[in-house]
Write a structure and sequence with these properties.
GO molecular function: glycosyltransferase activity
Distance between the termini: 38 Å
Main location: membrane
Pfam families: Glycos_transf_2 (PF00535)
Structural class: alpha/beta
InterPro entries: Glyco_trans_2-like (IPR001173), Glycosyltransferase_2 (IPR050256), Nucleotide-diphossugar_trans (IPR029044)
CATH topology of the largest domain: Spore Coat Polysaccharide Biosynthesis Protein SpsA, Chain A
Strand content: 15-25%
Radius of gyration: 25 Å
Bound molecules: uridine-5'-diphosphate, magnesium ion
CATH architecture of the largest domain: Alpha-Beta Complex
Organism: Mesorhizobium hungaricum
Number of helices: 10
Length: about 325
């Protein structure tokens, strides 16, 4: 029996990336050629149009060659969900996830694939950014986030690792079984397990436009990560609630003794005000946090699909000559 040619699926979500369509198609073409030359893999490209409002999809369709598919979602669902939509369409022996904005280079992609091919023991090779360019504040807050979220579970979410990774088909299939609607991919990759290996890289500059992550977006995303992957904040809050109540009790005792045994008139309102404000603020924060968890629980309990596909365009033509 002739040996079947192994296949690599490339999954790329895009949202309003018309400006990078041509460059990305060229990168994919080179990648396809190299992957076939070095590792003997056949490549399928699966792009997910995450509700673009510009002509991205048409531009990509025009620029792509070889075997490709563009899954157009019915609206913008967010990158995390778009990645799932792509994984759902994969069937290859290996799956590579990369961005369309040319921040993920040909060289690093090939390095990831090479590492996976050479290490039969490893199931996932992910690209880890070195945070050289990041501000101190940003990298410290990331550190804090990961140490907090990792302190209360059996698996570790690695720092500085994103969706840029290559995995075996078995891992991709396992990931598609995780149908969380409010998705936090880093957590899901870690939850799914398997053996991971990191390759450190420096992401390139975005070709055009800006990152879709604002500071506020990042904060909301971290809250979501916490609410779906960690009970630590709830534990800290209930414990500190207990501590505050205990301190209040002790203070109450002190006042009791002062008044009844020593006859000291305790001035009332400053301590009252402090207690009200501190406890009030604490309560509000706690309520908000519980609300966050309830919101995640509510979204997950609705029997809705994670995303909706508008249509799928595909092509299986010849490789286009260098455009
Ligand atoms: N993206 C997407 N849906 C979104 C936001 C982003 O499909 O709602 C795509 C985007 O087009 C790009 C990739 O996800 O291909 C990474 O997005 P971005 O460059 O904004 O993120 P960053 O590189 O800053 O992490
Ligand atoms: Mg980017």
């Amino acid at each position: 029996m002739p040996e079947r040619q192994p296949t690599l699926d490339i999954v790329t979500p895009f949202w309003n990336e018309a400006a990078s369509a041509e460059g990305f198609a060229r990168l994919l073409l080179e990648l396809e050629t190299e992957v076939s030359r070095r590792f003997g893999f056949a490549t399928r490209k699966i792009l997910i149009d995450d509700g673009s409002v510009d002509d991205s999809a048409a531009r990509f369709a025009e620029a792509l060659g070889g075997e490709w598919e563009i899954v157009r979602l019915s609206r913008n669902f967010g990158k995390e969900v778009a990645v799932l939509a792509g994984l759902d369409r994969t069937c290859g022996d290996m799956v590579l996830i990369m961005d369309a904005d040319l921040q993920h280079s040909l060289e690093v992609s090939l390095k990831l694939i090479g590492e996976l091919v050479e290490n039969p023991d490893v199931d996932v090779v992910y690209a880890r950014t070195n945070r050289e360019g990041a501000s101190w504040k940003r990298s410290q807050s990331a550190k804090l986030f990961y140490s907090l979220i990792n302190s209360s579970q059996r698996f570790d979410i690695p720092e500085n690792a994103g969706d840029f990774r290559v995995m075996r088909g078995t891992v991709a299939r396992a990931l598609t079984k995780l149908r969380d609607k409010r998705r936090f991919n880093k957590g899901l990759y870690a939850w799914a397990g398997f053996r991971h290996k990191a390759v450190t890289y420096t992401p390139g500059q975005r070709v055009s436009g800006t990152s879709k992550w604002s500071r506020l977006n990042l904060l909301a995303f971290s809250m979501e990560g916490f609410a779906s992957f960690s009970v630590l904040p709830l534990r800290i809050l209930s414990l500190s609630g207990l501590a505050v109540a205990l301190a209040g009790g002790i203070y109450g005792l002190k006042v009791f003794f002062e008044v009844f045994f020593y006859g000291i008139a305790v001035p009332g309102y400053p301590s009252l005000l402090v207690a009200i404000v501190v406890l009030g603020g604490f309560n509000l924060a706690l309520l908000g946090l519980i609300g966050e968890y309830v919101w995640v629980a509510l979204s997950e309990s609705k029997d809705r699909p994670v995303y909706i596909v508008r249509d799928i365009v595909s092509g299986a033509g010849e490789q286009k000559p260098d455009a």
